[in-house]
Amino acid sequence: MLVTRKFSNILTPRTINSSVRSFQVCVMGGASEIGQAVSLMLRTEPAVSRLVIHDTWETAPGVVIELSHIPANSTLKGYVGEATMKRALDGSDLVLLVGGPLKTPGVSDKACLDANTEFVKTVSAEIGRLPKMPFVGVVAEPINSLVPMAAELMRNVGTFDGRKLFGVTTIDWIRAQTLFGTHHGMPPEDCFVPVICGHSDKTTVPLVSQARPGTNMTDTEIQKFVSQVRRYDEIVTLAKHGRSPSVSVAHGVHVFARAALAALGGRDAHVHAYIENNDLGTSYFSGLVQIDSNGVKEMTRYTDDISEYECQILEEALAQLRKDVAMGKKILEVD
């Protein structure tokens, strides 16, 4: 179904207002590099009345102590170890899975999947046992495979609502938006570039043809732009001498969380996310998603005026995405 939206209607950090209601947010993997940054941003988020930090790392109590030094109207609670996972999740409205090793250039998606599988499996099983499923945002990589795996686990355990499970892909949109604005000498917040399909260097598809405002970029410039968006993890990691992007990713998670909390508070909102969707022959797909208090309402589709180049890379990306989804589900079959 084709849904046409103006980019000015999208919730951004500038346009999202705090919800009147307050919510409990649980950061699973809160002692990780990204987890600490996300927790810092959420510590003073007005819509968060209770922030819960969970990790299996022994440094987790220190992270909670540090966060407690920041003046905030929300309560703060920390848990350590798998045995405390259920207590950490109980009562949560939004759960963010940010733990596990970060994806770095030179490390295959399969190796990253193997490293993060146990973390996502354990948390997903506990979420599935909750009496009511919260909104769940998966940040751990590779999202293309881990989100389908999490969904199957929750279905098998008990409680599952596909409208409430999201792979957080906001960073893809932020990067495309910023690069597009920089190229045109415009404030990035006044630009919008749809980014669809998956969340990896082979499956991320920026649609310059659908950008707002419109552009007169040459074919060469467009191809360079797409390559930059896809390679930004590598670019940042090289600049950080081997350390993966974390600050910008954490900001993207914060933008996602604010929109999710606005939706839980009764407002229609938008997130950039990877969700269950088979419109293009895959069971999962990423893009701009309208959400409300029940979760996903609909995903924006861009079917008109897509360039020949975009059709080509989308077809290639879809082929890879199907493999990624299958890889995530296959792990459960082996187990």
Topology record:
Layout: E1 23-28, H1 33-43, E2 48-55, H2 60-68, E3 75-80, H3 85-89, E4 94-97, H4 109-128, E5 135-138, H5 143-157, E6 165-168, H6 170-184, E7 195-197, E8 204-206, H7 219-239, H8 247-264, E9 269-276, E10 284-292, E11 295-299, H9 308-334
Parallel strand pairs: 1-2, 1-4, 2-3, 4-5, 5-6
Antiparallel strand pairs: 6-9, 7-8, 9-10, 10-11
Helix pairs in contact: 1-8, 4-5, 5-9, 6-7
Task: Describe the structure concisely.
With 335 residues, the protein is an alpha/beta fold.
- Strand adjacency order, main sheet: 3-2-1-4-5-6-9-10-11
Based on CA atoms alone, the radius of gyration comes out at 19 Å
Structure classification: alpha/beta
Per DSSP E runs of 2 or more residues, the count of β-strands stands at 11
Overall body shape: globular
Mean pLDDT: 90
N-to-C order of helices and strands: EHEHEHEHEHEHEEHHEEEH
CATH architecture of the largest domain: 3-Layer(aba) Sandwich
Total of domains: 2
Q: Unreliable runs, pLDDT <50, ≥5 residues?
A: 1-19
CATH topology of the largest domain: Rossmann fold
- Assign a percent range to the helix content: 40-55%
Number of helical segments with 4 or more residues: 9
How large is the share of residues in beta strands?
15-25%
Largest sheet: 9 strands, mixed
How far is it from the N-terminal to the C-terminal residue, by CA? 37 Å
Name of the top-level CATH class of the largest domain: Alpha Beta
CATH superfamily of the largest domain: NAD(P)-binding Rossmann-like Domain
